[in-house]
Amino acid sequence: MKLKDTTKRAFIISAIIGVLAIACIIRLFELQIVNGDSYRERADSNSVRTYTIKAPRGEIFDRNGEPIVENRAGFSIQLFDNDISAEELNRNLNDIIKLLRSNDSSYDSTFPIVYDYENKLPAYDFKKNESGAHSGGESDDSALIAEWESANGVDGFGTLREIVGYFCDRYEVSGEYSDEEKIDIIAVRYEMEQRSFNKANPFVMATDVSDVVVQKIKEKYSHDGFADIVVDTIRNYSHGSTAAHILGRTGIIYAEEYETLKDQGYGMNDIIGKDGLEEVLEPYLRGRDGYRKVRMTDDGRYDEEVELNRPKAGNYAELTIDLRLQKAMEESLAKNIGEAVGEGGSGAAIAVDPKSGEVLAIASYPSYDPETFNENYDELINSESKPLFNRCLNGTYAPGSTFKILTAVAGLESGTIDTDTYITDRGRYTYYSDYQPTCLVYSSSGATHGTIEVSEAIGVSCNYFFFDIGRRMGIEVMDEYCEKFGLGQETGLELSESRGVVASPEEREASGGEWQPGDVLQSAIGQSDNLFTPAQIAGYISTVLNRGTRYRLHLVKRVGDYDTGETVMENSAEVLSENEISSETLEAVKDGMRQVVRYGTASSVFSDCEYGVGGKTGTAEVSDGADNVLFTGFAPYDDPEIVVAAVVEHGASSSYAAKIGREIFDEYMKINGVIDNEDQD
């Protein structure tokens, strides 16, 4: 009986063991065979770390192959999601922020609340979102504030302190931190959230950090998997501020930009072109990132490389500008503006190939250094001289007497006058009883220019002559020729530009004013409501020299594949419009412009010039200081290869603008071997 019970008990135990063994086998089969790949991936995700290998951004060269924008190696701080508590995460972030600050570096964030050190309060600053830099001061843009508060669900709070408190609760930022530290931690946590920080998507907290920061991060964090240093390519603007306004800058992608670009393969940590040619050429300059997967040991050290996918460099771009001419233009602007106005002066210049529309050089003064843009953003944005403003493309100026070339062409081509039409300058123009403007020479000395024809009128810049032909043909004809020659229209440049303003009754009425008959006279000499950019002035003079063929201005010559050198994109001369003028008209205005530099207002600047040149100065009255002064011209005289337009704001004397033109022409002639480098120095 006892034996039977023992046998029965042994059978039951064996059965239980058997069932358990079968269950284990089934479970092992499930783990290793059915779901083996899935669990292996999970294990790998805990021991394998993926590092992005950034593709070098395409470099930018001048027309002769000289590098303008290159790349250099740099280091960025990358954070990884390693399941630490919010308390530890916030403590680590605070320590890293302090490390960055003590080494003249900053973190990247679009959080629009900063700490106002002066008032010891939180303050809105939406301007920092444009640069990625942290700057103080409040934004007065209530629309931006309302939009952001609504999007983030904080529009119900009464004060910024309450909003900061809300984010402290949201990110579990404790009261142990100062107000400044809280805002810093929140800003980074906010950006991490915006860029979808998770195990599969590390977060780049700061770029181009110093060697000291690199060493400290590696010492403190690399072993625990929270933060590490990755090698990055940093944009290097080889010649400092040279051509800054056209080159633009790069920066880390923002959440709203990512939403637009994610379908094109962009990641949340990518660097993109923010403005200028960096932005325009983004589809070409951007490379294809690679990656490197590395298995880590339990103590955070590298074990082995699991996978490697090499990056592909972006395409390179060749511009139309000549680096040597560009530098000469910028130096000339700085020197002559300094002499004319002193500190705080401003102006712009552009040089164009009239036969193709290629921009040979373009500059706005004052300028800035793209590499230190973030660090200097507060100073740049608050400067009265507006160094970030591209005056050549977006500054609009009354053209003054540089417009008389257009008036002459319109008068000749419309049949209002011909080359044998003579007008006697009587000093005061008395056609209207209630408005009787004078010629400048008459108002200053009581003299007149006598009886002259159109070339002589250009040469001596006779207001009386142009008052009369302007009145005869009327504003409609002048506006028609403005349109034909590109004034009041975009030049076609790849960058954002102003259209300017062409004086007309419709324009005046649209702005709430009333057009007067005397406005026709003022329009004819480049005053009234006429406002054009230096680029438009250079474009219209080029069109005159081409007998009415107007080319699109452009800065990009070609884009080439980095590996093969094959052309990816190329710009050629593009005709925007053709409005042919006669050879007789062209020669008449050219002769007038030659007289300007030989005997007229620019003769003191060009008296010893070894090559043929034509030009026209302009002086435009402004309401807030000395006159703006302009110059436009071309060289060589017989077969023009370069057209220049320059403006000096409040320069008073047109000789300063003419000197800029002369120095640009001289450098061009030296580059092309027309004059020796030792000459003209």
TrEMBL record:
**Gene Ontology molecular function: any one:** peptidoglycan L,D-transpeptidase activity
Task: Read off the Pfam families from this record.
Answer: PBP_dimer (PF03717), Transpeptidase (PF00905)
Q: Give the matching InterPro entries.
A: Beta-lactam/transpept (IPR050515), Beta-lactam/transpept-like (IPR012338), PBP_dimer (IPR005311), PBP_dimer_sf (IPR036138), PCN-bd_Tpept (IPR001460)
> One GO CC term of this entry?
plasma membrane
Q: Where in the cell is it found?
A: Cell membrane; Membrane
List GO BP terms, alphabetically: cell wall organization; peptidoglycan biosynthetic process; regulation of cell shape
Segments passing through the bilayer: 12-29
Descriptive protein name: Beta-lactamase
The major lineage groups are: Bacteria, Bacillati, Bacillota, Clostridia, Monoglobales
